[in-house]
Each structure stands twice: as structure tokens, then as C-alpha cells.
Amino acid sequence: MYVPSEVKNITVSTLQKMKADGEKFAVLTAYDSSFAHQQGLAGVEVLLVGDSLGMVVQGKDSTIPVTIDEMAYHTACVAKGRQGSLVMADMPFMGCQTLEATLQNATKLMQAGAHMVKLEGEAWLAEHIESLARGGIPVCAHMGLTPQSVHKFGGYKIQGRDQQAADQMIQDALAVQEAGAAILLVECIPSVLGKTLSETLDIPVIGIGAGSDCDAQVLVMHDMIGVTPGKPAKFVRNFLADGITTVPEAFEAYVKAVKDGSFPGPEHCFV
Ligand code: KIV
């Protein structure tokens, strides 16, 4: 049985040092206090209060209906239960309409207990990231398949597959890093692009469906314990399986698999 290291307080500097040391870190979505507590005890470094809560908690069709007040509510729940993990909260749909809106909404999330905010978007986010960083708010930029743009993409489709799109994503990633982003999260992109981004950027790169060479991995909690209705996405592995019978053990197995590089396997990746 994998024994997680003692719970320590995780900061942005911890994650940067882990990247520098070549140690992978584990991220899971969390929406409430009890699961946040158990994930922390299992050694999950970052708890993402994802707007995926619109789908897995509220049962909606997409993340688009989720409001800033709902995000702040779940962020407060997670912050209450955390055991040293860093709390990252999602900016909801159209939360960055103007610079002023970005600052106001990020303030709500930070005052609810977040340590970092995640924004979906590309290079256009640069001025928003600069303003937040100036105000002391660390930012994770989310690129690739950004679920809030599902209608623009025409579905949940793999991004960055052709050379032009891949080159554009690398340019956008460098622009948000230059603007002061502390982390990049990339979703549903070819593994080779996930590897290039992780090697090119100084900041940690978290992947979901982005290959095994990213500096960290994230999954939606409901997916990795096999309770999300419907067919799981290719990048999902159910850790509440193969002799693992409790949710805390599934969290520990996930952390171990991320750190030893056995998750994601080739069957979870895109070419
Ligand atoms: O909202 C969320 O849970 C996310 C992850 C899928 C990365 O953004």
C-alpha cells in the first residue's frame, strides 16, 4: 500500500520547485469539504474547484450556467476541508468580460478561500493575468479544449492537432507565461504537444488528456471514482477498481500513479 507523505502546506513555490526537481504533482477536482479533506490526506497537491461542478454536481449539460456565486460557495466549502493542498478556483463562463470584471470575480474567489484562479483562454488573457498578478493573485491559464467554449468548438474535440494550431498554442502559452501566469493547464491535446509545452515553459504544465510528459495531471474526481454517468472520456481511468474498494484508497492510488508516471498510460492519450 502506498503511504502518502505527511500533509504539508503547498504553495505556488512548492509546485515550481517540484517542476524544477522533476517531481510530478497530482491535481483533482473537489467541490466540498469532506472530499477536499480526504484528497489532502492522500497527498493531492492541488484541489481544483472546477466549474465542472455544473455537470457532475448540478447535472447540467455544460459548465456554461455556473455562476460566480456558485463558484465562491464551493470554493469556501473546499477551503474549509483542505489539509495543506493548494486551492485553485475556476473563473466561470464570461467571468473575464472586462478587466474590472476579472478583478472583481477573482477577488470573490480569493476571499472565499482560493489560493489561485484558473482562467480559460489564450494570449488575449495576458492583460487580465498581468492585472491579477499585480494584485497578488496567482493565475493558472487553461488552454486546448476549454469546456466553456464547447459551442465554438462544436463539441468536446481534441485541440492543437495540426501544426499551425500547435504552434499557435505554444505562442499563446509563452505569452501567458510572460504576462505572469504561474501555471498552465492543457486539456485534450496530442501528447507530443503536451511534452513540448512542458519542456518549453518554465512554469508547471498540468495535463488532462495531454500525455504523460506533463509536469502534473488532473482528473475530475467523479470520473476517477467511476460515478459520472455515461461513457467515460478516453483520458479517464477509474481508480476505484482492481482491488481498490474505498474512495480514500482510490485517491492514494491516483497520486501514486501520477508520481510514478504510470498514469496516464498510452490508452489515455491522444496522438
Ligand atoms: O472544471 C474543471 O473541472 C476543469 C478540469 C476539467 C481541468 O477545468
Name a few traits of the molecule.
single chain; 271 residues; alpha/beta; TIM Barrel; eight-stranded parallel beta barrel; 11 helices; 8 strands; 14% strand; binds 3-methyl-2-oxobutanoic acid
Compile the SSE list and pairings:
Elements: H1 12-21, E1 25-29, H2 33-41, E2 46-49, H3 53-56, H4 68-81, E3 86-90, H5 99-112, E4 116-120, H6 126-134, E5 139-144, H7 150-153, H8 163-179, E6 183-187, H9 191-200, E7 205-208, E8 216-219, H10 221-224, H11 247-260
Parallel strand pairs: 1-2, 1-8, 2-3, 3-4, 4-5, 5-6, 6-7, 7-8
3-methyl-2-oxobutanoic acid binds near residues 50, 185, 187, 208 and 218.
Describe the structure.
With 271 residues, this protein is α/β, with parallel strands linked by helices. It has one domain (12-268): Phosphoenolpyruvate-binding domains (TIM Barrel, Alpha-Beta Barrel). It is 40% helix and 14% strand. It is built from 11 helices and 8 strands. It has helices spanning 12-21, 33-41, 53-56, 68-81, 99-112, 126-134, 150-153, 163-179, 191-200, 221-224, 247-260; strands at residues 25-29, 46-49, 86-90, 116-120, 139-144, 183-187, 205-208, 216-219. Strands 1-2-3-4-5-6-7-8 form an 8-stranded parallel barrel, surrounded by 8 helices. Helix 6 links the parallel strand 4 and strand 5 (139-144). Helix 4 (68-81) runs parallel beside helix 5, helix 5 crosses helix 6 and helix 8 runs parallel beside helix 9. The longest helix is centred in the middle third of the chain and has 17 residues, at 163-179. It starts with 11 loop residues before the first helix and ends in an 11-residue tail after the last helix. The model has no long low-confidence stretch (mean pLDDT 97). Bound molecules: 3-methyl-2-oxobutanoic acid. The site of 3-methyl-2-oxobutanoic acid has 11 residues, from strand 6.
